[in-house]
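#lab-general

N.A. 3:47 PM
ok so I finally got the sequence cleaned up, no stray characters, all 123 residues accounted for. can someone with queue access submit it? mine expired

B.Y. 3:52 PM
send it over

N.A. 3:53 PM
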Amino acid sequence: MAIETLVFNGIDGITGEYLLPPMVADTLTRVALGETLEKSQVSEYESRMQVVLALAEGLDPGKLDETGWGVIFSAHADRQVTNAIRDALGELLQHRKEGAGQLYSEFHYEKGKGYRRDDSKNK
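B.Y. 4:20 PM
back already:
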């Protein structure tokens, strides 16, 4: 039986890598329950968890009109799938757009943007 690896949302803005490394369900369960990990696992997860993500000084994280908000869809995804996801998230996206104003961004195929497989964090 193949072991399924779980991949989580969230990108490290400095490295462009996943914020948390992919892991198997057993490891996720152990982390969630606060259990001790094997030594080889600890260094990988600790190094990722030590990163401090903070806004520029003076910005209020509770004010989207100061901090902004955005969503990134795959540029390669089927348009019907992307549209279905956007529709399902419609109320959230509208709420965030109203809160962030001009600092709201969507990246997807319609605007010629969106995540492409070979994109780097700088792209």
